[in-house]
From TrEMBL:
PANTHER family: GLUTATHIONE S-TRANSFERASE. It comes from Coccolithus braarudii. InterPro entries: Glutathione-S-Trfase_C-like, Glutathione-S-Trfase_C_sf, Glutathione_S-Trfase, Glutathione_S-Trfase_N, GST_C, GST_superfamily, Thioredoxin-like_sf. Residues 11-95 form the GST N-terminal domain. This is Glutathione transferase. GO terms for molecular function: glutathione transferase activity. PROSITE patterns: GST_CTER, GST_NTER. Gene3D superfamilies: 1.20.1050.10, Glutaredoxin (3.40.30.10). It comes from the Eukaryota. GO terms for biological process: glutathione metabolic process. It holds the Pfam family GST_N. Residues 97-225 form the GST C-terminal domain.
């Protein structure tokens, strides 16, 4: 039984996702950095489809029917951004101050919606190879550098996106930069990140955190810069 002692109670936490990073990785890292024990379940696509067929991904009172799925004392929470906020609060990685919390949400939405959703994801479903090659070239040469320049600037003051300490926004940034750095996107060079000194320093700093280093050694041995 994997449990975390909160201020008032013990909770049992289980996180289910595919055997990749995806939207679950910031959540995993939030729990790891917070020292919160959790069951890290990784399922295949066939196992996910079986879960869906059995109704396990559509529990009553939940908005959604997909992974990742977070279970807290048997209660289910869907939607990765809600899951990350919850897990971030467990370990003090989500700001208590309303303004800083809003700025944290702003940074997360910029990464998830503007960079991943509007920038990268449309190129992943393109069947026309010529169009895909052109779109990836635009990503590498224009779109990503524009977004990365903004993020690089945000890190200048403290080395973190919001305030003077680590937040869930930084976890999203870390996962994004690692994804790009792994060379996963054909036509987008991992060196795209290295052109930005603050982003590069940030990734190296995160990699040197003992809990992240141990986690990566076990779960993500092929990450760049490790």
């Amino acid at each position: 039984q994997l449990r975390h002692r909160g201020a008032d109670s013990m909770v049992q936490i289980k996180l289910t996702y595919f055997p990749i990073q995806g939207p679950a990785e910031p959540i995993r890292l939030a729990l790891v950095l917070s020292g919160v024990a959790f069951e890290d379940v990784r399922v295949s696509r066939d196992e996910m489809l079986a879960m869906r067929e059995a109704g396990k991904l559509t529990p009553p009172g939940c908005a959604g029917s997909q992974l990742p799925m977070l279970e807290v004392d048997g209660k289910v929470l869907l939607q990765s951004m809600a899951q990350l906020v919850y897990c971030g609060k467990l370990g003090g990685l989500y700001p208590a101050d309303p303004w800083e919390a809003a700025k944290c949400d702003e940074a997360v939405q910029f990464i998830v919606q503007d960079i991943r959703g509007r920038g990268i994801e449309p190129t992943m479903s393109m069947s026309d190879e010529a169009a895909k090659t052109k779109a990836r070239a635009e990503l590498q040469d224009t779109k990503l550098p524009e977004k990365f320049a903004l993020l690089d600037k945000m890190l200048e003051a403290t080395g973190y996106l919001v305030g003077s300490s680590l937040t869930v926004a930084d976890l999203h940034l870390y996962c994004l930069l690692n994804w790009i750095g792994m060379g996963t996107l054909d036509g987008v060079s991992p060196d795209t990140v290295l052109k930005f000194p603050k982003l590069t320093e940030f990734v190296k700093k995160m990699n040197e955190m003992e809990k992240i280093k141990a986690w990566n050694a076990e779960k993500n041995p092929k990450l760049p810069w490790c």
